[in-house]
Write a structure and sequence with these properties.
Layout (H helix, E strand, L loop, with lengths): L2 H4 E4 L3 H10 L1 E6 L5 H12 L3 E8 L3 E5 L3 E5 L3 E7 L13
Antiparallel strand pairs: 1-2, 2-6, 3-6, 4-5
Length: 97
């Protein structure tokens, strides 16, 4: 698997920003076949930062109903919670090395 296909995009939510400040943890949406080792290697290769731990969560496909007969589907995704070793290091998403 190619390096830039493993991490699809960073997730910017209220929960993600609070985890970034308190625990030095970043959330990424990753490929469905990616493993913890793949994510750890990819973060090191792209951002040159040491990773302490990686936790992976699979979200479930959900359905939302509107006006009783219209149904929307939210796709299942896979998220990786990446915690960095150094508390002072930060990921700058505007620059990719």
């Amino acid at each position: 698997m190619r390096l830039y296909n493993i991490i699809k995009k960073p997730i910017f939510t209220e929960k993600a920003s609070s985890m970034e400040l308190l625990k030095n943890c970043y959330i990424f949406q990753v490929d469905s076949s990616a493993t913890k080792i793949d994510v750890k290697k990819t973060v090191f290769e792209i951002y040159w930062l040491e990773v302490a731990s990686v936790n992976i969560v699979k979200t479930v496909e959900k359905y939302k109903h509107w006006k009783k007969w219209i149904q929307f589907k939210r796709r299942a995704t896979k998220k990786a919670y990446v915690t960095l070793k150094d508390k002072k290091s930060k990921i700058d998403f505007s620059v990719i090395k």
